[in-house]
Amino acid sequence: MTGLRYVYAVCRPFGAALQSQLTGVAGAPPKLLHHRGLVAVVSSVPERDFAEEPLHAHLEDLDWLTATARAHQGVIDALTTVTTPLPLRLGTVFRDDSGVRMMLEAREGDFLRTLDRLTGRVEWGVKVYAEPAPGQSAEAGEPAATPPGPGVESGRTAGTPMSGRDYLRRRSRSVRERESGLRKAEEFAERLHERLAAHAEDARLHAPQSAQLSGASGRNVLNAAYLVPRAESEEFVEIVDRTKDEMPGIRVELTGPWAAYSFAGEKP
């Protein structure tokens, strides 16, 4: 194996084979590097792209970063089907196998403790969104009606702008409805989180996602991760599925099962 060593994850030794056609970052197949009671999942990457300076430059290139992240995640997903991986950060690179083994040696105790805690468990993600009413902006709660133009009087006919008074009334009503809907969504999300956390071994609440960044419609009021034993995942998914139609104007999204990214560090 030539080139630098890209490290995807650390896990315990496992007997199942990885997919024969699996490729990782830069198109190289992942390999297993054993060291004592641990295995590092690695592949070879070219120095021209992954040495310190070019790697920092590439991290500013969105297309390159997206392709690399997808390849990285593809290996993690494949590992999750056969073992419990402890994912490492995107772009974790060492000079050679010796450097990887030194890392495993230095962090052996932490890796083993974390793997003990995560073995046989997966992460499920749950998001709850308050969706805007028809004709209403997801962020500002603005009515869709045409605001008044200069010199518009209170009386109007179909197809003409509404008066300033009517516009303000509708805007005020729209804001009240949006605030009421948001409160209901937040209360629903709180109840759902309590229910799901009771069926999980651990839970993490992440910051709500911005609609501008995520591209998702609606206001994100719950962005949570749950650590669930793999054997109990079906029951967990059923609980989420039963909530999806409980309340109009609220959308529940479930993702997973993932490697336990949110639980790989020490408990906060």
From TrEMBL:
The keyword Nucleotide-binding does not apply. It comes from Streptomyces chromofuscus. Residues 166-184 have a biased composition (Basic and acidic residues). It comes from the Bacteria. Pfam families: GvpL_GvpF (PF06386). Keywords: Gas vesicle. This is GvpL/GvpF family gas vesicle protein. Residues 133-184 are annotated as: Disordered. One of its GO terms (cellular component) is gas vesicle.
